[in-house]
Amino acid sequence: MFSYLGRKTKESFFSTISESMVTCKSTDVDTCRDDSAAFILKFVAIASILIAGVVGIAIPLVGKHRRILRTDGSLFVAAKAFAAGVILATGFVHMLSGGSKALTDPCLPKFPWSKFPFSGFFAMMASLLTLLVDFVGTQYYEKKQGMTRTSEEQGRVGSLDANADADSESGIVPIVENKERNGKVFGEEEGGGMHIVGMHAHAAHHRHSHPNGQDACDGHAKDLAHAHSHGHGHGHSHGFADGDAESGIRHVVVSQVLELGIVSHSIIIGISLGVSHSPCTIRPLIAALSFHQFFEGFALGGCISQAQFKIRSATIMACFFAITTPLGIGIGTAIASVYNPNSSGALIVEGILDSMSAGILVYMALVDLIAADFLSKRMSCNFRLQVVSYFMLFLGAGLMSLLAIWA
């Protein structure tokens, strides 16, 4: 009896595997198939999407040195809000619905794909994993930044001690750093080597005071004016203050995780376009994906610009983003003759990757792009910027959602 049950279980297992490998023919009749026209349109798509991606990511990287497109300017914040809306709609409307459609396709076995909402589950798990990566990455860079700062301070103390020894030999006694009666660190407003210590004390002072209401906005304006005067009043670089270092670390992690999410779904949409034989499908995709690539590039370029990467690292990240979708189109074109998007394996892979990409993009849009800007003191203290940013956010999300009609 046990041998009979074992044999039946084995047969059931192998029958399930064989069913999952069966190629299912699409119920839709492709009346617009034209291989030669589709082949030409794919090259048009590669060129258009590549140009859109390069221009989109280059604007914030090149324009950060221009006054009108500086990353701390209101125009940049509003444009970034529009791009955040585009990414949010991409995750919810395009990627999540695409993953759900693929994983509930009639070509897949009813068990287990029709018995559980796998698309939402994979999106949720991808969001939680993105949170974990976000946290671990931030901790890593904070620790790295702290070690770098400690070594720099030790070197600075060593040089001060050496200077003190030399001065003592010549009969000159250095002034020891102390606090004045008003609580200010001596040397905070003076130049010279002690100014670094003053900047750290100044940042710590503002970080531990939390005024409310109009006082908070007034203090924010004074901080901006103070930072601006320091930036123009000193020819040498002071490096990051503590608050700036924390913000820079966040931007480093955000830019890398965001690029991971964008790249993962860019490959999928590129392959989907590349394997198509229908000009009627490819034409609207060219416009939709070019628009999509431009504003995704703008959002990513803004994060890279704010992270203050070195030119080489920023260029590598920009190029990697720009070529991903065209590369996916090239791969799809090369395998179009043997690839069947309606096979069970293709549907499962596409559905899982689309759902996970949706989770990553939704997390990044809500947490690291929208919340980071819209809950900031700068936004709360500028009513005009609030109105413009919310309008741009809803406009970007609405226009990208509207593209779902064609793509």
TrEMBL record:
UniProt keyword annotation of Membrane present: yes
Basic residues bias spans: 227-237
InterPro entries xrefs: ZIP (IPR003689), Zn/Fe_permease_fun/pln (IPR004698)
Transmembrane segments: 39-63, 75-96, 116-137, 314-336, 356-375, 387-406
One Pfam family this sequence matches: Zip
Swiss-Prot/TrEMBL keywords: Ion transport, Membrane, Transmembrane, Transmembrane helix, Transport
Ranges for region Disordered: 206-242
Membrane topology: Multi-pass membrane protein
A GO molecular-function descriptor: zinc ion transmembrane transporter activity
Record's compositionally biased regions (Basic and acidic residues): 217-226
The name this protein goes by in its record: Uncharacterized protein
GO cellular component entries: plasma membrane
Family stated for the protein in its record: Belongs to the ZIP transporter (TC 2.A.5) family.
Compartmental location: Membrane
